[in-house]
Amino acid sequence: MVDVQYEQRVREVAMDWLLSRDPSRSRAFGFDELRTFVYDGVALALMDRQRGIRKPAQLSAALSIRTTYTPPGERPPYDDSVGVDGLPRYKYRGTDPDHPENVALRRAFEYKLPLIWFIGAAPGQYVPVYPVWIVGEDPRALEFVIAPDRAQTLAVPGAAVDLDQRAYVERLTRQRVHQPLFRAKVLQAYEHQCAICRLKRDALLDAAHILPDSHPRGVPEVINGLCLCKIHHAAYDQNLLGVSPELVVAVRPDVQIETDGPMLLHGLQEMNGVRLVVPTARSARPDRDRLAERYAEFLHVS
Fold this sequence. Notes:
By secondary structure, the protein is α+β, with helices and mostly antiparallel strands. It folds into 2 domains: 4-182, no CATH class; 192-301, no CATH class. The chain contains 9 helices and 12 strands. It has helices spanning 4-21, 31-34, 77-80, 100-110, 163-189, 230-237, 253-256, 262-268, 288-301, and strands at residues 38-39, 42-43, 53-54, 64-67, 89-91, 115-122, 125-138, 143-147, 205-209, 225-229, 241-243, 249-251. The strands form 4 sheets. A 6-stranded mixed beta sheet has the order 3-4-6-7-8-5. A two-stranded antiparallel sheet has the order 1-2. β6 (115-122) and β7 (125-138) form a beta hairpin. The longest helix has 27 residues, at 163-189.
């Protein structure tokens, strides 16, 4: 007999533990840190080093699932397996529906227990997305259906939806899954510093899109991102400054001649002509074509 209240409580405490270590909900964790979680005096690793589905011996249902790291330029596996309902899928362990790990995930579904989804942001580094729910199963495709947001649990898995409904479901997935992962990957690639001013305070850093979510090529990939401090992110979004395809910062002419306090002078005006710091890995550097398109917009409004 499954003690659902106990299983639920373990999950609540585990998620509170993660939140206490990362209030932004976008930091990557390593396995060594994730194994330090303790519940009721007993160590309980939140992620399995070898297996994708984690079911601790103390529990009857799975506690977490894992998706491995996808290098820049490659398509993440959760993007390749989205159903007609707009919800992501998670593959079985192997092909046997009755494998113990698949049974453990099925129990989480049956008892409506939330899970933690660890998604690779770098080799050995995982961003936890939580809570997520298993809301269905497709034995023919050997996969479970995931709802990354509570509102998505109302969807009917496998049922085709109209374009507006699918856009709504996918928007929730972007907010809960893609954006935290995007931030973690961008900050990692830029070595946790603003590409313009070199500020290294994580709490003050954002992953800025070069082309926005609404753009057909505005995908949450590192090559469509810049690590910017909050002031430069806001200035970039408002076209107060732009970044050329040659990776040089341009401050809008009217901003350059304004008179204000030290933030305007040192934070914006003195950034004109600064060359961006970019990732060491060429595959993670900002895409030149996207920069050019975004820079053309900046010049248009300057």
